Amino acid sequence: MGSHVSRIAGVALLFCAGIASAATPLFIPLDKSSIVRKSDATDIPVAFNRPGLENLVPGDEVELTLPNGSRHDYVYEHSIAHGGGIVTWIARSPITGDNERAIITYGPHGAWGWMNTTYGAYRVYPSGEGYDLLAPRLRQDFSPTFPGGDAITVEPDAPGIEHLKGIPTHVPAPISKAGGFFKVTPVPTVRADVMIIYTKDLAQKLGVGLMPMLMNLIATANQAYVDSEVAITLRLVNATMLDLANTNGSSAILSGMRNAASGADVGLNAIFQPLTWGAGTSIRDQVGADFVALVRDGPNDTGGIGNLAFNTAIYPAVQSIFTTAYSVNNFCVQGCEQIFAHELGHNMGNHHDTATIAKDGGGTTTIATGAFPHSYGWYSCVNGLTCNPYLPNGTGGACTASGPYASCLTPAANDFGTVMSYIGPRIMKFSNPNLNNCVPTGGNAGAPRACGGVVPAPAPGGKTANNALSMNDSRGSIAAYRNETIANTPGSLQFTNMVFSGNEGGNITFTVSRVGGSSGAISVSYALTAGSAISGTDYTNVSGSLNWANGDTANKTFMVPISADALAEDIESFTATLSTPTGVPGVYIGYPATATGLINSPWPIGGTMPTGFTTSGPNAWTTATDQVFEGTTSLRSAQAFGNFGAGNAGISDLVYTANFSAGPVVFSYRVSSYQNQGVFQFLVDGVIVHTNTGESGWTSFAYDLTAGSHTLTWRFSNNMPSACGSGGWSPPPVGGAGVCADRVWIDAVALPANSPPTNPPRLANISTRGQVLTGGDVMIAGFIIGGSAAKTVVMTVAGPSLIPAGIPNALANPQLTLIRQSDGVVIGTNDNWQTQTVPGHVSSIQAAGFAPAHPNEPALIATLAPGAYTAIVQGVGGTGVGLVGVYEVNTPEVPMINISTRGQVLTGGDVMIAGFIIYGDNTKSVVVTVAGPSLVAAGIPNALMNPQITIVRQSDGVVIANNDNWQTQTNPAHVAQIQAAGFAPAHPNEPAVILTLPPGAYTAIVQGVGGTGVGLVGVYAIP
């Protein structure tokens, strides 16, 4: 039948042997004639259908529909099976060859990749279960915000690691060739091993897309070597997660990787010792990794940074003086394959293009080199550069140290830079003057240029840009930075998903895959950890191991039986964890190493908004039955609308705040929106940790919370001015106008158990001493229980027991009445604490440790709901000095917010004294005030007209603050702070102080300036 040629032409896959048959398209096509480009719009993502790749054979020609409605051809070359259902698919343009490639890595739960086309660069990224998007790829910027560039020269290796390096490994030459171009690749090809450190932040953002992304990085770099005629191939031998904050600078991390961080960053050295620089003990040395690359979604200080190798020994010599082959790669959520290849290039001895080097050097005619004088990147600009990097800084026309790097002036169609160049647009090739086929993405295919050559003027003459020659000549050293310890990779073991679910009375089946190798027999242990689901009650605790034989790459499973308790309860969860990989050397745990088991239950319970979830306004979330993940009810956002012309998005927020135990928050969601305009975001404490857009289908997401208080926000943000389902939009929504709903649904939300802080800073015990008279001059203490739960307190009044303390005229027989302020109901009254309405309260008061010292003194114990309460103190047949106190018994997380006491302020020993104690693990901010003149308006006779307050620390008797008139403060800023806290006194003659106090006991002394009267002292906790 002749040669086999097949083609995906828009909507059909055609096997051309005289007969055409329809098949699944790779990208859901758009009718090109219907495309309307809006002035304020960009390319719109289209759905990527990865199963179509599996039907191709090498040599098939593929036509892909792009987001702008155009079509583009590729020739499928080959694929790489990584195991676990993860495959990398590699294709090239039939016109521009390897200048325009598509390298897509796809797995059971998402695809990751990129493609260069005549119309620009595009990114394939996972959007939902079985659903991916193709969208324009943002340009990656290597340029650092710190001086000196991203190529860091370092000192030679310490002599103590000589035994770890020096023997290169030869492998068969790669089989992938672009076809039709000049070949100069030498033999033998050497293999270099790579270890990747990925941050926890990156892993949680990519989820099960992480491993395909890592595989794509390696495949992309290897294809760049093939296309550049470089006899090096990379192999991933380890991937390790590191919980490292993105606030750490890239250069500081790079220093820490080689034990050279200093100053405020010195702690990074210890973090990286077990990973990179601990000689013989580090993971790097154990797996024989020639290179270690850290990947993250890091700060905007640089695209990446890497150590620059120089003066390496020349192949076939067996020693290299430089092996700190470390790099930091940022922006890896949007894709960092160019950065990854660039920074590894520095580790291999490649430098930038000479214009960039000159600019970093402040304008120079002496151009630093890498391993060789020809180890430069290459650029080609028809119209020259925007500035002259070879002029000294400050010279007219120079590229200034603080200014941008040089770029092509008046860009022409075929301007380009190679991998090591800062000048773009970049192609995925290293400089090689023997190749004459370099055309950038979007360039003119009819006019390719050389991929390297003599360094252009005004650089010093006699230098050439030939990274390929540099890498080929030193490849023996490059592949021997560490001796190979893993002959054949056994691969990594990880869960295939982050969430597995099951119903009560059934089982939850967890699946584990082997990815990245198949050599040798290996095993991994698994175990369960309780979360909101309780072991033995909600599920049967299981543990054990999973085993793979040599060559076995099939997925393995274990089952967890779920109890049938038939209780109406929230969705509960537990965690499964993989650990202790064993077998042949090199096996490691991949990502995810933990997975959440969800016990399905109708959510929300009763079909109503769950307790604690808040939403408000015209864009409030509601319960819904039109879309559910399980059961019959979900929560649904409003159809919020904005105005993309003005940049104003409509926002619909659902918020939940609580104090959590450490563990995963897990939920399922569905987005139905106009792609890139209606966006779902999940935020933790105001930081976006997950986002999606378009038509996602039901998708599950899990995020690990640390113990403590967190605010979770589910947000639908929409720039569309009207409904995406109206049918008037072009291009149409990905799912079609009949489906698009401008909404987000969430369902099956499982939260870590609420966990109160063990010892939060708080007002725990508060008391006031003063005169207890009659009528309107009895003592009145008010306090507020905050929070959302009840709190048990003990209230007492000391009278007779004050006499031994030297207090004259003590109240001989005090009485206490507790009133709820919301309705005036008397909750309790007591005269003598050993006589209680509920006899058991006597022992409860004693057990709490607050039993009065005299039988004539009253006490009450009560469990009080949040709210305001009043304790009235009076004498039975007499007057005198009393001390009223309110004391915490339990639930430290439920605060006593405020306490205030009204009474007579006299002189000498009869001033009013308020005592309070700060408990907890941290400081607490309070405002202490005294009301006097403002009481007159409330009908209080004989008010104290000019009160004064003094705060004393009881531990040493030191006066820490005093005030007479609140608007006159020792620190003038305190006036505004008191106002902002909401506790500013109502009269200028009334005092106030604002303090941040460590745990301890304090006394507030209230007295009058030139007079006596009724005062109201208050101690108020600032949230």
From TrEMBL:
Keyword Signal found: yes
Record GO terms (molecular function): metallopeptidase activity
Gene Ontology BP term (one): cell communication
SUPFAM superfamilies referenced in this protein's UniProt entry, alphabetically: CalX-like (SSF141072), Metalloproteases ('zincins'), catalytic domain (SSF55486)
Signal peptide: 1-22
Keyword match Repressor: no
UniProt GO cellular component terms: membrane
Keyword vocabulary terms for this entry: Calcium, Repeat, Signal
Domain Calx-beta per the UniProt entry, residue ranges: 482-579
Pfam families the record matches: Calx-beta, Reprolysin_5
InterPro entries per the UniProt record, alphabetical: CalX-like_sf, Calx_beta, MetalloPept_cat_dom_sf
Official protein name in the record: Calx-beta domain-containing protein
